[in-house]
Design brief:
eight-stranded parallel beta sheet, TIM Barrel, about 30% helix
Amino acid sequence: MSAKLLIKGGRIIDPSQGLDQIADLLIEAGRVESIGSEPGSAGVPPAEELEIFDASGLIVAPGFIDLHVHLREPGEEYKETITSGAAAAIAGGFTSICSMPNTDPVNDNASVTRFIIEKAREAGLARVYPIGAITRGSNGEELAEMAAMKEAGAVAVSDDGQPVMNGQVMRHAMEYARDHGLVVVDHCQDLDLAAGGVMNEGRYSTLLGLRGMSGAAEASHVARDILLAELTGARVHIAHISTAASVETVRRAKQRGVAVTCELTPHHLALTDAAVASFDTSTKMNPPLRSEEDRAALIEAARDGTIDAIATDHAPHHLDEKMLEYDRAPSGVIGLETALGVALTVLHHSSGVSVSRIVEMLTIGPARAFSLSAGTLAAGSPADLTIFDSQREWTVDPRQFKSKSRNTPFAGWKLRGQVSATFVAGRRVLG
């Protein structure tokens, strides 16, 4: 490969710099060298020294970042490995992913953190940033070794999948995380209010005879975390936000200057609890699919800037596990390879949200939430790029996925918007 690469003639969208223009992008030694809209203005060397990628008709964006991925390694490699998960990420245009700690053993110490980083380095695909546990074993009682995990490479802490129910434990966690420059990511759910529900509490849970999970279980926990963030001065990130009440609580907290960020998932954008009527366990996730009112509130929050990031909550499960009765099947769906298509189809093509805003939620928004050195095409930054066609139509075929699992609710869906090429540090890893 040439030492220099020219991405030629694409529509460069980089919200970190307010860019949206047809231009050339020059890469040298794995970093962005320059962007120029006129021939030669990007400092282009003679043709014999240059590799060229023709991006005409395509959008060139900073590499996508997913703040919420379950890679299952160590412990459940039959569902996913760090390598297969990183390959799925690259296929979906994600050059950086953050791995949740609910592995076996739990990532609650520096040795597991280092293991994840080393396995990702060996894979040589997407960058993987480990998220450490808040508490030992994610049991919600004793704080984990945050300082050691931070030193080993963790970028945030979370007991995702297990909400930290004890408010005093969470207060101490926020204080400790604040002192070590870590973001606290919470799975907001009051387990007493959730009461073992398997879907959203409402009309459809009544019709289907399934135990419902109240939206108040999430919203009340979001409010608690925001109050604790105000008290401690910590940075808190609300994972997979799913209700209108939660969104409004975050919106008001941001207005008064609380250090809170949040993410939404493509499946909560595209689906409602009406989909559960099929009893397809690919519609079972936690938090559950909500009402149409909640979905509309998420779309508006994406439009107005309340939402910081689109995150997949990529949760692989083996086919046999998902083929159980709805009550017994595990929660979770995969999403790395369909995220862009779903986001563009629902937010842009159906709801009129700008492509630039969607790119923002996939790049600089998540980068800022976790203080990652990514999400921009500024000169000197790592040349992580996602190149995509916002108009291309395709049909979701799980048999073609790079992920080891197939538990997607979007099988057979026709989506509009697809990744064309992915580059990590200037190296073409897809397309």
